[in-house]
Amino acid sequence: MQSQYKLRGSSASAIAADVEEAIRDGRLAPGTQLPTVRAVAAELGLSPTTVSAAYRTLRNRGFVSAHGRRGTQVSRRPPLTAGAFPVVPPGLRDLAYGNPDPALLPSLGAAFKRVSRGPRLYGEAKNHPELLRLAAAQLAADKIPTDSLAVFGGALDAIERVLQAWLRPGDRVAVEDPGYASIFDLLGALGLVPEPVGVDECGARPKEVERALGAGARAIILTPRAQNPTGAAFDRERVRALAGALAPSPDVLVIEDDHAGPVAGAPALTLSAVRTRWAVVRSVSKSLGPDLRLAITAGDPTTIARVEGRQHLGAGWVSHVLQGLVAALWADPATEKKLETAQRTYARRRDALVRALAERGLTAYGATGMNVWIPVPEEARAVNAMAAAGFAVRAGEPHRLRSPPAVRVTIATLRSKDAGRVADVLGAAFAPASLTAPA
Ligand SMILES: Cc1ncc(COP(=O)(O)O)c(C=O)c1O
After folding, report:
1. Which residues are CB-contacts of 217 (< 8 A; sequence separation ≥ 6)?
2. Is the CB of 283 under 6 A from ligand 1?
3. By CB count within 10 A, which of 114, 169, 263, 367 is most buried?
4. 259: CA distance to ligand 1 center in Å?
């Protein structure tokens, strides 16, 4: 979308302020193409250096992003207002959001009763000792070093803090493609540049990691299991191969986003133990509920000292009401049973959809996690066909950098009869002619 908006200003800071205001009040929509530096310079009678400086400021703040020869565009989710999440149209079954099934989350009622009621004040221990003890036991069982642990407000909060501990605007970060759209948006907001790494059933492809490192990536964000959107999960061979690909770059920061934790449907494998700068982020959002806003982060001592030190100066700590709730849930044997059931149920729902699609001639991916990723030639056609049948699904576009089109279906609440209906709709729209032709 080419901008009809005429940029204004007689200095770099004035142009940047003008564009920021136009994005904020909606005159420049997300995705809008900005005119070239040369065109703006000519229009405003300024030097290209001045306009370039304005664009750099906007980029570093994540309001716009540069796309090589395609020029500069307003970011998809510029960090200016609490951008509304895409709304599921009324009347449609929500298979779009990536939420867990509320019926599979442990009830908070009993846990609330066990949270300490006493007031807590400034100057007390930041982290809940029982939470740390339980987290360390879980992580150690997965061979993740636990010497340095921190508690943050969810996986994305932790990832942002870890990135900021080491990187500066303009730095490149290797990310999975397709990948988690919010990670792409977060990188943009921090002025960081994504370096796409292709994904197969076992996660990031080692050869593409090598290429991204060659292109100057200073950090990499990997999803060890429940990769969003493809459901990929590491196996041991992939962990070895990724460790090998990263070995010549010991200073590269490795972040593992274990957002689904115990309900992912695969063991927690990690390459953190062989790295110098690393963080494993384990969120409780998918297993205990997104509103707990809590992620445990293990990392090397320098990384954890930096992020905790910075947290101390700002938010301070994660409320002990939340930390105590998570500790109480983890300490309850009923939670383990509930998580086991959730993991099995998600696996059944994923398999049902992948199988139903295969029966109609469509290949889909969803070995672990909450989503099934279905390559299609035309995303809009798939989304519209699904909407006409009463289902909201997510176009793949926000999850893609260079990878080909697809749609994402969240299976968290998808019963098997609905899996058949979803597959019927997509099958009718896209199945290979040989399978749909009458016998
Ligand atoms: C890959 C991935 N990382 C992180 C998150 C967000 O986790 P949190 O709620 O802990 O920030 C999600 C949520 O869907 C996700 O899919």
Report:
1. 172, 173, 174, 195, 252
2. yes
3. 263
4. 5
Query: Atom of ligand 1 at shortest distance to CA of 369?
Result: 16
Query: How many domains, in total, are found in the chain?
Result: 3
Instruction: Specify whether 351 is located in the same domain as 227.
Output: no
Within-domain flag for 6: no
Model pLDDT for residues 78-98, shown as the tens digit of each residue: 999 766 566 788 999 999 999
Q: Are both 136 and 150 inside the same structural domain? A: yes
Which of 410, 322, 399 has its CA nearest to residue 100? 410
Rg of the chain, C-alpha, whole Å: 23
Q: How far is the CA of 187 from the centre of ligand 1 (A)?
A: 14
Enclosing domain of residue 27: 12-74
* pTM, entire model: 0.95
Q: Is residue 187 part of a domain?
A: yes
Q: 126 and 189: one domain?
A: yes
Tell me: the pLDDT tens digits for 242-257?
Answer: 999 999 999 999 999 9
Last residue of a domain, one of 287, 315, 331: 331
User: pLDDT for 261-288, tens place per residue?
Assistant: 999 999 999 999 899 999 999 999 999 9
Q: Spell out the alpha helix ranges (H) of 154-278.
A: 155-166, 181-189, 206-214, 236-246
Q: In which residue ranges of the chain is pLDDT below 50?
A: 434, 436-437, 439
Candidate from 234, 255, 259 with most ligand 1 atoms within 8 A of CB, to mutate: 259
Residue 215 inside a domain? The answer is: yes
